[in-house]
Queue: 2 jobs
Job 1
Amino acid sequence: MQAWKTYSNAYGRRLMEEISQCTGSERVYDTIFVGGGNPGSLTPEQLASLLRSAQKHGKSREVTIEMNPETFGEHFFPLFSDGLVNRMSMGIQSMDDQLLKRLGRNASRSDNLRAITLANSARKRYGIELNFDLMVCLPGQTLQMAINDIHEVLSLADAHHISLYCLTVEEGTELARAVGMQELAVLDEDGQAEMLKGIWGELSLLGFSHYEVSNFCKHEKFCEHNLRYWNISPFLGLGSSAASTLIGKEGWYHYTQTQDLRQFSSSALFSGYEREDLSLVQSVEEYLMMALRTKWGIEKQLLENRYGLAFDKTFSSLLGTLDSSWYFDTAQNFSLSEIGFLLLDEILLRFVMQIPEPLDRPNPL
């Protein structure tokens, strides 16, 4: 515990200084997202200091903080009462103890019940928006179990946003071992598709709009911060494992923070951020990958203005290879239907193969 306190204090000091230097030009950030890992591992006082620094030139329109159920408590409520945070995203994942154990989660069903109820209390007191993350298509999980999770969460909290993620079995984990030994069965693509269609249909009946492959909301309560990712708008990421997407005179580029928590805590300011410059073709690929995930899809005029690609001229032959039930095509946008969402990887690959290379104009600002 003492070692973690030492690291967290050093981590907070460096992050605070980097935030201060980045906000020194009277910049007001539209959105802020405190997440990745478990921000609840920091104290409310540390988080408040970081958020005040990030908003010292003006309040951000949306400030989201991620919380894990096992570390969330009422001691974090001052973040909401002081207006530093107006949206919370909680990683529930499952309401089943056995599934939580298989996922290697630290939280139990009882932790989830307590945290969801407490989150709803914060919503009632301070008017914050709530999102809950749930995992689906898990080994041993039925469609009805997944639907029951959604209903139970929504019976405890008035959430306007739900994020659903399918399981990715990572090498070297206990879950990967169990799957490899055939102790657990993972759904095949057809099985996943059937479960997802059932879950998506249930969310629609509950009044949720499917606005991105993994995200659903009521009353257009989109996650504005994530919209910046999907729209390929510039964003700045600070801290261990953070990522940024920025634009300069030569085009788009990424920064990735490669240091782990201990390295970040003990290293010089702005060290460990590695830059990757994107070619115009890479920028187009990234835009297509993100845009096709959303219900708005590809904005044809943006594609031409930003990347010099006329959609109808470039992709007209491709559309002839797609089933008409997979997409919607208008003069302004090309987007995927829910059937298309299920085939996203295949459709994206076809689009990428159609990009002319090299493109003959620089990446415009």
Job 2
Amino acid sequence: MKRPLTPWIVSILLAGCALGGNMTPSAPTDTAVPSAAHTAPPLPDRAAVLLPQTDSCGRGRCYTLEVVCAGLPARTAQVRHIQALEPRGTIFFTTGSEGNLFYAEMGGIALETVKTVTQAGFETFEIAWQGRDGWMAGAEGAGYTNALCGYAAVVRFVLENLAAQSEYVLAQGNSGGGMQIAYGLAVYGLEDVLDVAILSGGPPVSRLDVACFGTDDEALKPAVWPPTVQGLERTDWLMGWQGNGDYCSSHAAPQEIIAQAQADSLVPPDGARRDYGYPNTRVYFVNSEADKTAADEQGRLYFIAILSEKFWLEISGREHEISMTEDGAALIRQILLGQR
């Protein structure tokens, strides 16, 4: 699966500059969080199973998977597969919020990204969680860490059962889509199968306590969610606080609730129960220079925590849906196409 590092990094850097992007190959001056021993709860052997509903859907073939993990009720995900005759690699696409749309259905720019990589010889798998609540279905009160087990289960099933090759694997997701990938790396061991991860528009929950409740730390204040962010209510629901304090929406909580939010964060203050060393996976962050949702500053905290190869790219503006902007999508395509 894994490849040695190659000089393509230089060409990506130059291309990013041509687009007005800024690539930073090392962390900002903040202190990196120590990596904890990887104590992720193992996924069950059959965390994802194929259901009989398999048919064509648009440009590809759709498979329906049932996912059971972390003690949660069964959830379903549709996976749209576009084949390649002799694939150069396998790319997973997932979307933000509840993750219940196929990537190419987000708009013309995202559709063009999928077309570009398939025409270049990559096979693609677009993951769309079913139902209004998507990947959060049945996860009220379970927290982010448990609810996000499903993405890793789907990726592993696809690579073992549906993909034509698993030697070179990439993943891209914006906002909540990138969050699925990030928890897959930090908690569920996806560094074993991913060669490249491209996280855009965040990920937005690196420090859940800061996002919801604010902070006295001046360095972290830019990572506080503004009151218009939909993640406030989603977090209350996922954490079991909706109608039971509504702590995230009200931006205030007792210390035990703050501690609960810290423990469920992608980057807990003590780094416990998280893995930040991915020696075989290159992790790219693509954000706007001043995301209106503060997802860029949340994403920067995860960037700082990662102890292996990582890259920070920015586009101008305040956009959050990076993968649906011309500049953001162009950078994402360059990374996807420039790996070999």
